[in-house]
Amino acid sequence: MERVFIVTEYDGTDYVGYQYQDNGPSVQGELQNALTQVYKEEIKVTGCSRTDAGVHARGHVSHFDAPFHIDADRIPYAVNAFLPENIAVKSAYYVSEEKSARFDTKGKRYCYRLYTGRTRSPLLSRYAYYVAGNLDLAKMQSAAEYFAGEHDFASFCASGGSQITTIRRIHEVLVARSEQNPNIIEITVSGEAFLYNMVRIIAGTLLDVGQGRILPEAIPTIINSCDRRRAGRTLPPSGLTLEEVFY
Amino acid sequence: MERVFIVTEYDGTDYVGYQYQDNGPSVQGELQNALTQVYKEEIKVTGCSRTDAGVHARGHVSHFDAPFHIDADRIPYAVNAFLPENIAVKSAYYVSEEKSARFDTKGKRYCYRLYTGRTRSPLLSRYAYYVAGNLDLAKMQSAAEYFAGEHDFASFCASGGSQITTIRRIHEVLVARSEQNPNIIEITVSGEAFLYNMVRIIAGTLLDVGQGRILPEAIPTIINSCDRRRAGRTLPPSGLTLEEVFY
After folding, report:
1. B27: enclosing H helix or E strand
2. CA dist B176 → A27, A168, B58, B149, B173 (Å)
3. Catalytic: which of A52, A65, A136, A152?
4. Burial of B1 by CB count in 10 Å (0-12 exposed, 13-18 middle, 19+ buried)?
5. d(CA A240, CA B147)
6. Is B73 an active-site residue?
7. Closest Cα to residue B208, out of B227, B184, B233?
8. Which residues pair with B150 in a beta bridge?
9. Which of A196, A221, B63, B192 could join B169 via S-S bond, C-beta 3.0 to 4.6 A?
């Protein structure tokens, strides 16, 4: 047995989420199915984290134990042949057997995309949330700075999470126009670990700032209140992409 | 009655094409349905051209006759409220009543996108056709130059078309890396009018050039042969987008 990390890109629109569930197709289920066909025996896959239904990933990481050796470079091609078009393994590498994609993460980077054109864009709507009208980018940027550091993020956590503590360390929240499309605003959130729906609530709060409903200077008060009702709404999953996982 | 031109963007993946058909949802059908709800009476829509099942558009143009006046700026918002997420009217303007979106086109610009990353990309696969390995961009560019001008394009026409002549005027075929993503190669084809599947066959032929199966200098011979079997294959519809229509 050799342990393998695989980096996976997927369009989450048609999935119940990363994690295997009874009520519909999951990314984990598809990965396990493809790997089982490659290795001709049942393979279990452990993901770095769940992503919710409809959330995308460009760099999700999972691990599994390979019953025989395939060159790391060739693993993506072997597995992709058995995956649906909306999931692909981008790269694979062998790690020591005690390494876990789930427990050894040092951090993750997410991006929430807002599209701000005059009318909504069907060719962008799968991956960016449409907001009518302009946003005050400078205000969003100054609000974003308050998130960095270790805080109790209870105000930015959906109920239903089972975590012991709501304290988390955020490395950085950045707000910038996409280099690829100036009508897309990218909210990039990097941190050690995240609460349930945390990035989507941070994005919703920054959207409120951009639209003038929340002042940038109010962010510390919202954080300190530990009251979910003080923060903005949870934005839809389609705008969110897990970009990178750090080990 | 006032005649209105509407510019429409759509994701064609889930449609049988632009034109109304009995066997599934069409863009024209959705537009007619939305306009009928806005104007409270049955509205017929005439498109600049059909696009095939799975082909996208960023700037498709249609016309209809409005039974009462709505400010042109407000038409997109009124109609979009009744359209599914994968179709949107981007802009609208009034024209004189003899103007036709179908018969008065001066030309169209299409873009066929190839994605050439190391592995396929689920987040790009809806709008770009995946090609494994590198392409010889310089050769594709020199091959592209032979298409400009008035030619008999019978070699680049799928059977089943009902046109009287296969002579068409192409303004320009350009091959370039996307500014947004250097792994995407954009084949931009502008011309007066097109034969059935013509852009997808030109793209398939240029792909053969990029992969070394056809020499750039062979393009004039392929055109002159008027033999469909000499050109490359028809690439899938998903990579194709109707970008702009000229009047």
Report:
1. helix B27-39
2. 34, 45, 19, 20, 10
3. A52
4. exposed
5. 42
6. no
7. B233
8. B169
9. B192
Q: Which amino acid is present at B244?
A: E
Question: In terms of Cα–Cα distance, which of A49, A93, A29 is closest to A242?
Answer: A49
Instruction: Report the half-sphere exposure of B54 (CA within 13 A, side-chain side).
Output: 14
* CA distance linking residue A39 with residue A33, whole number of Å: 10
Q: To the nearest 10°, the Cα dihedral for B223, B227, B233, B236?
A: 90
Residues 6 or more apart whose Cβ sits within 8 Å of residue A119: B76, B77, B80, B88, B89, B90, B91
E strand intervals along A98-233? 107-115, 129-130, 149-152, 167-177, 184-191
The ipTM is 0.92
In chain A, residues with a C-beta closer than 8 Å to the C-beta of B122 are: 9-11, 85-88
Contact A80, B120 (CB under 8 A): yes
Q: Report helix angle A137-144 to A198-210, nearest 10.
A: 140
Write down the pTM of the prediction. 0.93
Structure tokens at A207: 């959207």
- Beta-bridge mates of residue A61: A7
| Phi (first) and psi of residue A34, to 5 degrees | -65, -45
CB contact under 8 A, A85 and B125: yes
Task: DSSP letter for A154, please.
Answer: G
Q: B173-217: per-residue pLDDT in tens?
A: 999 999 889 999 999 999 999 999 999 999 999 999 999 999 999
What is the average pLDDT across A231-242?
Answer: 97
Contacts of B241 in chain A (CB under 8 A): 123
* A181 interaction partners in chain B (CB closer than 8 Å): 180
Nearest CA in chain B to A132: B77
State the Cα–Cα distance between residues B182 and B177, nearest whole angstrom.
Answer: 5
Burial, B78: exposed, middle or buried (Cβ in 10 Å; 0-12, 13-18, 19+)?
middle
